[in-house]
Amino acid sequence: xxxVYEADIDTGILANSRIxxxxxxxxxxxxxxxxxxxxxxxxxxxxxxxxxxxxxAELKLPTGTPERVxxxxxxxxxxxxxxxxxxxxxxxxxMRMRQGSALLFAHGYSxxxxxxxxxxxxxxxxxxxxxxxxxxxxxxxxxNGVPALLAIHQDATGTARARGLAxxxxxxxxxAGVLQTTFADETExxxxxxxxxxxxxxxxxxTAAFETLVDAGYPEELAYFGCLHELKLITDLIHSRGIAGxxxxxxxxxxxxxxxxxxxxxxxxxxxxxxxxxxxxxxGRFADELSxxxxxxxxxxxxxxxxxDAHPIEAVGTRLRAMMPWLADTGR
Length: 332
What we know:
- This protein is α/β, with parallel strands linked by helices.
- Helix content is about 55%, strand content about 10%.
- It is built from 16 helices and nine strands.
- It has helices at about 25-35, 50-60, 65-70, 85-95, 110, 135-140, 160-170, 185-200, 200-215, 220-230, 230-250, 250-265, 270-285, 285-295, 300-310, 310-320, and strands at about 5, 20, 40-45, 65, 75-80, 100-105, 125-130, 150-155, 180.
- It has a nine-stranded mixed β-sheet, with helices on both faces.
- Helix 4 links the parallel strand 5 (about 75-80) and strand 6 (about 100-105).
- Helix 8 (about 185-200) runs antiparallel to helix 13.
């Protein structure tokens, strides 16, 4: 995967284009502000009465209803939640977007799993930041950026790639590098990483390790610090130095335990489970299961949130984080 940087990107292709940003969550806010600060003509699409309208006014960002934005914009970036996107496209965008305009996504889920089938006269592409919204904005303000993925699903005008690269550069990604991929690869690897490592794997490993120590009679404070709090120290090292670099930075005792005990946790059973999880994603079984969850009113999500809030690790964490007020500044 070869990265493209801003020196090789022509943003002039969007010089006379209006860009509509639908949604004003963390990513929507970051994109709208970055594009505005890069000189683009940006309008944020918000429903009447949205609580984000006063905030946009304060930030000097123009707003309009999604219906109006869809009809006026040359590019529309879809930054509403995945589960809302099909209805937004079918009820608003499909009938209003002009021929030859571009529909952009920051994640390939809805298109890859055919929950949205865009009109054939539209450019359909993805610019996926490799960072959360706060990072996308903060690094931009600092004169840097986070990398991004670019994918083309439909190139109705012959300019989809050029428009996508220009959008990425205006959002700051050209400073760090833009990598071209496909909707399928981005979606499937993103879902797998969330389930196996970033969310599912990490949270369940932390909780199981905490419970193991507490059940063995150790103080829950020590279990919290060892299994949760100190995780950031290791992930920061991995993030900046890689896995091998992290191992060179820790004690020989910790490194020896890594090599000899880690494979007991992530052994053959775990690897088989990872393969099965990936197969669920690639075949669409996970997407079908998620659709049923949303249609049923999100019972699994509600039960999971209730169980997580009630777990002893949360009470311990709340008490211990109060001893570390500096964490409040970073949202942790």
